[in-house]
Amino acid sequence: MSQVLDGKLFASEVKNYIKERVLRLNELGITPGLGTILVGDDIGSQKYVAGKHRDCAEVGIRSVEVTLDGQSTEQEILDEITRLNNDPACSSYIVQLPLPKGVNEQKILEAINPKKDADGLHPFNLGSLVLNSSASLNTPVPCTPYGIIKFVEHFLGQGFWKGKEVVVIGRGITVGRSIGALLTRKDCNATVTLTHTGTKNLPEVVHRADVVIAAVGSAYLVKPDWIKDGAVLIDVGVSRTVTQEGKSKIQGDIDPDCYSKASWYTPNPGGVGPVTRAMLLENVVSTAERLSGKK
Questions:
Q1: Is the pTM of this model over 0.90?
Q2: So what's the pLDDT on residue 214?
Q3: N or C: which end of the chain has fewer CB within 10 A?
Q4: 202 CB contacts (<8 Å, ≥6 apart)?
Q5: pLDDT beneath 70: ranges in the chain
Q6: What is the model's pLDDT at position 8?
Q7: Which CATH architecture has domain 18-113?
């Protein structure tokens, strides 16, 4: 029988552990702070950022919020980045994506101080991850991929990933291009196939997988006949549709009809989303600990 990988339960346990670490930092006179730069009025981004700051309040992390309108120039965004780079109250921060059209996203991300990169997506930190296949990581790592790995291990046990054949659908930097670097480290030792729009016979490739990680943003792309019996399904994709009642509804990349073929699966919503937010807090606290010399 298929079982649910409960992201809310995992996130709650992570937060309890983070609270303890925040209290230890407080005893040293340190309060970790998470900054966010939100540009524009994308509803999904607004909700996500608001959720991050609710999480901060829950665990004792200071919030530093920057909100800019959608007409803000690239230079205005860069000015805010410079300010947060130099703000001692902000241990780590993120620039919420997507950014308005005309803004050079790569230039914006590169302007972040790598030591304050809460998302783990700065080129320096990604480069450190790619170059390091075995030693302990001492730089921020991408929240969603790292969260997926720890989330699955929490339910299925340490060593779960060893020898597993993992198929990742989607080549975005947030998950697709970065999760392979983590899963192929020697502490995981998985075999990873990255698929995308140029992949031939995608259903056949997916059908080989012990674990399917779908991160495209294409509603119900993955169908039941793509799935091997007993596979683990990780649904990262988010598509927003509007119901007849005018309400916003989230749909994942994996058709719910696939669940009956899986051994374990993540619901969407309620799966990877809460995990990502919890691991963002983990990055903030880990950075504060490194800066304090306690990690």
A1: yes
A2: 98
A3: N
A4: 169, 195, 226
A5: 294-295
A6: 96
A7: 3-Layer(aba) Sandwich (3.40)
- In this structure, how many other beta carbons lie within 10 angstroms of the beta carbon of residue 19? 16
Q: Which of 15, 52, 55, 210 is catalytic?
A: 52
Res 135: pLDDT: 86
Q: Is 55 annotated as catalytic?
A: no
> Residue 137: what pLDDT?
87
Give the C-alpha separation, 279 to 236, whole Å. Answer: 15
Position 294 scores a pLDDT of 65
**Catalytic annotation, pick one of 119, 210, 235, 253:** 119
DSSP state of 61: P
Q: Going by CATH, does the domain composed of 142-270 fall within 3.40.640.10?
A: no
Q: Catalytic site residue 244?
A: no
Give the active site residue among 15, 96, 235, 253: 96
Query: Would you call the peptide bond into 98 cis, given omega within 30 degrees of 0 as the criterion?
Result: yes
pLDDT at 148: 98
Active site residue 15: no
Q: Which of 97, 109, 37, 98 is nearest to 66 (CA)?
A: 37
